[in-house]
């Protein structure tokens, strides 16, 4: 049913192209890394595969944030927490895979536990020797935290800046908790020294390529799911809650449930992003809970264009590529550049790169139409087509695919 | 007073905010199928009364009954809306980034939970209902336009249309003609009279010409309680009403 809409003629071309590019990259990049000789011009070095794989995880995180910020107006400054929790769940699995190959050679306890004089495995580490269990936890832990957090926050009608502040407090609280050695998550050093994932060496080129492909495919899937959610009646409702929450209440909708669903789905997406990220960077530590990380995600989404599906992905890729370059050339100035970028985007590109592109295209089309009318010898005073935003062709049973208009954050 | 056969029954309702008594021992009864106009100077408690009926504000004391038996003070906004109380705000509030049609679709009576909305497909019956409402509110040619592009008056009508889509038993309409031209005002009066044929309606309005157009019983509020009630001529002849409107 949803797929039917996707392949229908009116489907959003941009979404289709994005999904196509991601799926193509999932095949081509690993091929160029593994099957092409390093001497060839087409060879993609392994470090590029790992780096772009990491960016794709960031893009997924930005997309997750966009679902709640762009479409529901919930400015979460704590999405990094969900990302890190997903990462920790994956890290715990990878830790248990080390087995007796650790420095201390303990078959059951990870190195840091031996070092900290743990006598036995803490109860919450049980089950993480199975991949399926870890995979469920990657989804369940961030999802559950978001559900419980959202349940209380949205029910007590905390909105706007206050909500942003408590999301920030949440990630900060988790940061402090995970820094403690007796939490049982490796404290300051976090989890690292991973050996293999599903029996394959995490350092091997083939595994890195596979992880890259998995990230690209997951991102493509997330784009599709977000697109389906946003295009459904629920998606319209989500934007309605963003624009006029009290109106939805007086129509009988439970705005808190609308927000809670989006927030939970978004947290699960962020958790998946974290789980794909950890094996590619080889470490997860409490630094991932840093409030500044979560704020950076907001910058990616803002730069790319919130309230669009493609925007946050472009934003995440561009800003991170910029960061990699900048931190190589002028490492001291990166944070200033990031801050400056955010200020500049807020002032000059309130709808981000994608929003600017759309506006530019819209103007270009109006100008072209006007010039064609002029060439055709019609009245030169023909006004440019009125700037009335019309939704796409309407077929019965369809929701229009009109671009949503992000409202300023409260 | 008997509650049966009333759609709305307020008795001895009081509410205060930080010591200010916005509603003071207010009693108001609306029969089923009745349309009532409520007038009163600024701060008379008109909007607060609507907040109480729709569950936004809880009264400190007093009884609020809907449809003869439902105690509205025990329910929240969404529940009250689902029972059949529709409300139009003073400032027209529509979903600006959606089309007219989508606005109505979201208002249309039906299940109000998340998962049905996720997998919702528009049925023929729903499409027909939307067409009907678009005809009533005269926005049929603008159905695919974004609500943000409507004029102020058209937004007011769209909001009334959304109330109709909700198919409530009782409509609370707060200042429907604020910012409308004379022609639009007349049109709105006609629209509300049509609606009142099979709904109970409360209209809060300042515009006396409009209230006269409606031709219904009028209640004048002042300082949170009823000052005078009756036909418009009766109420406007009441010396106390003249006094509060013109000052002493």
UniProtKB/TrEMBL annotation, chain A:
Protein name: Putative branched-chain amino acid ABC transporter (Permease protein)
Segments for region (Disordered): 375-410
Keyword S-adenosyl-L-methionine carried by entry: no
Location(s), subcellular: Cell membrane
Keyword Repressor: no
Entry-linked InterPro entries: ABC_transp_permease (IPR001851), ABC_transptr_urea_perm_UrtC (IPR017778), LivM-like (IPR043428)
GO MF, any single term: branched-chain amino acid transmembrane transporter activity
Keywords for the protein's UniProt record, in alphabetical order: Cell membrane, Membrane, Transmembrane, Transmembrane helix
Membrane topology, from the record: Multi-pass membrane protein
Main location: membrane
CC terms in the record's Gene Ontology section: plasma membrane
From TrEMBL, chain B:
EC annotation from Swiss-Prot or TrEMBL: 3.6.3.-
Keyword flag Nuclease: no
Organism for this UniProt entry: Mesorhizobium metallidurans STM 2683
ABC transporter domain span: 8-248
Name of the protein this chain belongs to: Putative branched-chain amino acid ABC transporter (ATP-binding protein)
Key words, A-Z: ATP-binding, Hydrolase, Nucleotide-binding, Transport
Recorded superkingdom: Bacteria
Gene Ontology molecular function, alphabetical: ATP binding; ATP hydrolysis activity
């Amino acid at each position: 049913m949803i797929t039917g809409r996707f392949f229908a003629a009116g489907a959003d071309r941009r979404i289709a192209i994005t999904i196509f590019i991601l799926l193509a990259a999932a095949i081509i990049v690993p091929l160029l890394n593994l099957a092409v000789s390093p001497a060839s011009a087409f060879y993609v070095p392994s470090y590029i595969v790992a780096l772009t794989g990491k960016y794709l995880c960031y893009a997924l995180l930005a997309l997750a944030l966009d679902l709640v910020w762009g479409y529901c107006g919930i400015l979460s400054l704590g999405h990094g927490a969900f990302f890190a929790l997903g990462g920790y769940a994956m890290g715990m699995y990878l830790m248990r895979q080390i087995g007796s190959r650790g420095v201390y050679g303990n078959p059951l306890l990870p190195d840091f536990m031996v070092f900290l004089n743990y006598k036995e495995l803490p109860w919450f580490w049980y089950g993480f020797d199975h991949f399926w269990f870890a995979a469920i936890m990657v989804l369940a832990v961030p999802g559950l935290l978001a559900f419980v957090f959202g349940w209380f926050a949205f029910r007590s009608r905390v909105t706007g800046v206050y909500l942003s502040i408590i999301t920030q407090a949440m990630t900060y609280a988790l940061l402090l908790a995970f820094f403690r050695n007796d939490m049982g998550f490796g404290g300051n050093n976090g989890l690292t020294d991973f050996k293999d994932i599903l029996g394959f060496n995490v350092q091997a080129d083939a595994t890195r390529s596979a992880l890259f492909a998995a990230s690209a495919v997951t991102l493509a899937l997330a784009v599709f799911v977000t697109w389906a959610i946003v295009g459904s009646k629920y998606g319209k409702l989500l934007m309605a809650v963003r624009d006029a929450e009290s109106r939805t209440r007086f129509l009988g909708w439970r705005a808190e449930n609308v927000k809670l669903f989006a927030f939970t789905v978004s947290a699960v997406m962020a958790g998946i992003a974290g789980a794909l990220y950890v094996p590619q960077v080889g470490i997860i530590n409490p630094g991932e809970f840093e409030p500044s990380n979560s704020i950076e995600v907001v910058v990616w989404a803002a730069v790319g264009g919130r309230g669009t599906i493609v925007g946050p992905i472009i934003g995440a890729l561009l800003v991170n590529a910029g960061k990699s370059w900048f931190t190589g050339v002028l490492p001291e100035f990166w944070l200033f550049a990031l801050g400056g970028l955010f200020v500049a985007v807020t002032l000059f590109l309130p709808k981000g790169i994608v929003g600017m592109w759309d506006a530019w295209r819209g103007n270009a089309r109006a100008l072209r139409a006007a010039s064609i009318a002029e060439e055709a010898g019609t009245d030169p005073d023909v006004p440019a087509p009125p700037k009335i935003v019309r939704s796409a062709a309407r077929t019965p049973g369809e929701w229009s695919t009109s671009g949503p208009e992000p409202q300023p954050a409260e | 007073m008997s509650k049966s056969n009333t759609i709305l029954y307020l008795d001895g309702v009081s509410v205060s905010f930080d010591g200010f008594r916005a509603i003071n021992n207010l009693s108001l009864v609306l029969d089923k199928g009745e349309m009532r106009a409520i007038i009163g100077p600024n701060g008379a408690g008109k909007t607060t009364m609507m907040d109480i009926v729709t569950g936004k504000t809880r009264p400190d004391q007093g009884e609020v009954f809907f449809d003869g038996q439902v105690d509205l003070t025990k329910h929240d906004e969404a529940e009250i809306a689902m029972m059949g109380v529709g409300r139009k705000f003073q400032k027209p509030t529509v979903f600006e980034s959606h089309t007219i049609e989508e606005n109505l679709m979201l208002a249309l009576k039906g299940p109000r939970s998340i998962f049905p909305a996720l997998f919702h497909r528009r049925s023929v019956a729903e499409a027909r209902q939307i067409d009907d409402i678009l005809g009533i509110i005269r926005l049929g040619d603008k159905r695919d336009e974004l609500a943000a592009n409507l004029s102020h008056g058209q937004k007011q009508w769209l909001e009334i249309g959304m109330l109709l889509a909700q198919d409530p038993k009782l409509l609370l309409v707060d200042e429907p003609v604020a910012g409308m031209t004379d022609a639009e005002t007349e049109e709105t009066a006609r629209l509300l009279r049509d609606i009142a044929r099979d709904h109970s309606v409360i209209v809060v309005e300042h515009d006396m010409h409009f209230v006269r157009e409606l031709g219904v019983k009028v209640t004048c509020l002042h300082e949170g309680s009823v000052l005078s009630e009756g036909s418009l001529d009766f109420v406007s002849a009441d010396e106390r009403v003249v006094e509060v409107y013109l000052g002493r």
